[in-house]
Amino acid sequence: MSSTLLFKLEFRHIMRNEAILLTMFGGLLLYAFLYPRPYLNQTPHNQQIAVINADGSQLSRKLERMVNASSLLAIKSHAFSIEEAKQMLMEREIGGLLVIPENFYRDLMLGRSPTLSYAGDASYFLVYSTIIEGLATISATLTAEVKVAHMVIDGVPLATATKLYTPIKMSSNAVFNAPQGYLDYVLPAVFIIILHQTLFIVIGLHAGPSIPQIKPNYARYFSVWQLVLIRGSIFVCLYLVMSTLYLGFVLNYYGVHHWASIQDIYIILVPFLIATTAVSLCIAQFLPTRDYSTIVGVMTSLPIVFSCGFIWPIESIPIPINLIADLIPAKPMILGILKINQMGASLQEIKPHFIQLWSLSFIYTLSAIGIISFKQKKTSKIN
Amino acid sequence: MSDSVSSSSLILQQWQQVRANKWLWSMLTWLPITVFLLIWWIFSAGLTRELNIALVDLDHSQLSRSLSRHYDASPTLSVLDYPSEDAARSALRSGLVYAMVIFPPGLEKNTLLSKSPTVAAYFNGQFMVVGKQINSALRQSHGTFMAKIEVVRSLSRGNTQTSQAIGSALPIRNQISALYNGNSSYAQFLVSAALPAFWQVLVIVVMILAFATELRDHSFKQWLAHRPLQKIVTKLVFFGTLLWLQGLLLCTLMFHVFAWPMRGSWGILLLGMLFCVIATQAIALLLMMVFENTEKALSIASALTAPSFAFMGITFPISDMSWFAQFWRSLIPITHYIEIQLSQANYGASLLQTSSYIIDLLVFSVCFVSAGWLIAIRRDKVQEVRQ
């Protein structure tokens, strides 16, 4: 029968399925609003720490003022013992502590290299790294000041001394996401995962078997390849619209920086959507009923997030997991789009991901056709 | 007498339902442990090692080569030599390396002339965790090399002792401690939060499926016609116990098999886990009573629980979240549980210090269970009136 008829039938069925609409429009809009909420502040500021000042000298007070002046840190209180600070840590009043040892100033002046100890609660990683980064910077600044002071005492002119506190300077800068914002780090990748998971759920809700079979199954009046291609292209088109919304408007709204041209984004987006649609059509055939697609979608999301290489580097992930993850369209897509859109790579530089996505598209489309025709033959035999 | 008979037959019925549904069966047996181990396996390296950085040496001197070897000696870094800045830039963009370091021409000469040349390092900020680690490893490595140069330099003047030379090269020493996560292992930090997040998804999905087996023609009317309270309670208790046992398995894995430190009381931890199960069950109950539709209940349950990892406050501090994020966070049971787990495992907090989180979960459960219950009763009355 004609493809236009199948298209009309399919489209009507999709648009009348409340669960699909709820997931595709409701879910995507909700996530676009909800997911960035925790990270709107981008970087943690003014992390509270306690200071144990056993020195009480002019210099140690200066050090405290430097801590307070840092945008990363704020002194919440002064503790008199480590135990007291630990208690505050336990009650989550502070995230870290700084210990200025006794005779800090004297030892420093005598060239005895006193030890400045600082600690952070490493159960909260970002809090920890912010506190350590803040304190390490302050300590380095103080070190440089002390060296300059020593040099000036030795008779080096101040102007020269300020340049010469170290034999070779290092200026280290973050490139791509230069302000180290959390939103810029997480959103571009997580949005792909959200699109990937919801597309899977939506296709499962449409193509999965319904039990009891209430509606007449019109699918068997059409050839399998017709069904796969038309069903697939409807979902690809719907998701092209949703992806445009996500990668265009929503990312823009949250001020996430992007480099790639619209054209380049579509060039990698299309094979991603085809591959995801095709793999979803395959898996949908193995679901007991269509509700289960939501279950599969929600349960696989965390493992997929972790195996895509933006949270934990691919080099550190065990090889078997990397091999399995390479079969998931989200992984090459995330790596590809991060590189062209956040890191300014050219299409040529992400060619491997591009080839991987197209290969997955072909393999999964063929498998979908194979699986569906196999299943249809089986059911027709039973009938 | 008849009561006890019927409740034991009810329990038997639950068991049969579990055996009949292959998916429910796997979610209560092998699936959770498989996923727990899988997630742990991803992070099993614990620390990132040997991350590639590109090095462009435009000086080709003895000093630049030994500085490069010094960077390479850092366990976090692995130095790859690139002939030109362009090649290194391209490698950085395409993700082959995570950072690029440039040694300017005349590095050795300017160092010997005390002109303090600058080495420029650019690290990839898009992969934030890796970027931060590379940055600190580079700074640390560079810092120790500089101290070495300075010590040698002042010793070569001949009028100082070694200890004095070290003192002037490193006037302040730093001692940095990562509390409660000794070797700042990323695995322990992330996985100990990710596994409970997954466990919560499991709890809510299993409960919705468990209620779904009682749906007839999209309605609970038939099921709740007789002894509704007993039926609902039996179901909650039966599945609650099994799911709580999954939680127990999870904690055993974390604190015994992976051997992460557990400083607090197992009693409080398991109590917290129990209340977390009840609170999550309460959400499932409410959703099913309101919609009497598995698809919708699942959609909404997943919308609530899927992003719970982001709202836990483990990755991004709660104090820096907007009020709405904090409000939404409080609606997700596992965020209260994770506080209990952290306060027990890390701080060994007392029951009193943990009680506020437990009370949160308790209030949560009571509200949702009673809401679900009210809806169930009210609907019955409305239907009776109509008939």
How would you characterize this protein structure?
The complex is a heterodimer of chains A (383) and B (387). Chain A is elongated and about 95 Å long. The mean pLDDT of chain A is 89. In chain A, helix 2 packs antiparallel against helix 8 (182-207) and helix 10 runs antiparallel to helix 13 (330-342). The longest helix of chain A has 32 residues, at 351-382. In chain A, 45% of the residues are buried. Chain A folds into two domains: 3-39 and 181-382, no CATH class; 47-161, 3-Layer(aba) Sandwich (abc type-2 transporter like fold). Chain A is an alpha/beta fold. Chain A has helices at 3-16, 18-34, 58-69, 82-90, 104-109, 125-153, 158-161, 182-207, 224-253, 262-284, 292-307, 319-325, 330-342, 351-382, and strands spanning 47-53, 73-78, 96-100, 115-121, 169-175. Chain A starts with a helix and ends with a helix. In chain A, 62% of the residues lie in helices and 8% in strands. Chain A has 14 helices and five strands. A four-stranded mixed beta sheet of chain A has the order 2-1-3-4, with helices on both faces. Chain B has 387 residues and is an alpha/beta fold. Chain B has two domains: 2-43 and 185-386, no CATH class; 51-169, abc type-2 transporter like domain (abc type-2 transporter like fold, 3-Layer(aba) Sandwich). Chain B has helices spanning 2-20, 22-28, 30-42, 62-73, 85-93, 107-112, 128-156, 162-169, 186-212, 228-257, 266-291, 294-305, 308-311, 323-330, 333-347, 351-386, and strands at residues 51-57, 77-82, 99-103, 118-124, 173-179. Chain B has a four-stranded mixed beta sheet with strand order 2-1-3-4, with helices on both faces. In chain B, strand 1, helix 4 (62-73) and strand 2 form a beta-alpha-beta unit. In chain B, helix 7 packs across helix 8 and helix 9 (186-212) runs antiparallel to helix 10 (228-257). The longest helix of chain B has 36 residues, at 351-386. The mean pLDDT of chain B is 87. The chains are: A alpha/beta (383), B alpha/beta (387). Strand 5 (169-175) of chain A pairs parallel with strand 4 (118-124) of chain B, so a sheet runs across the interface.
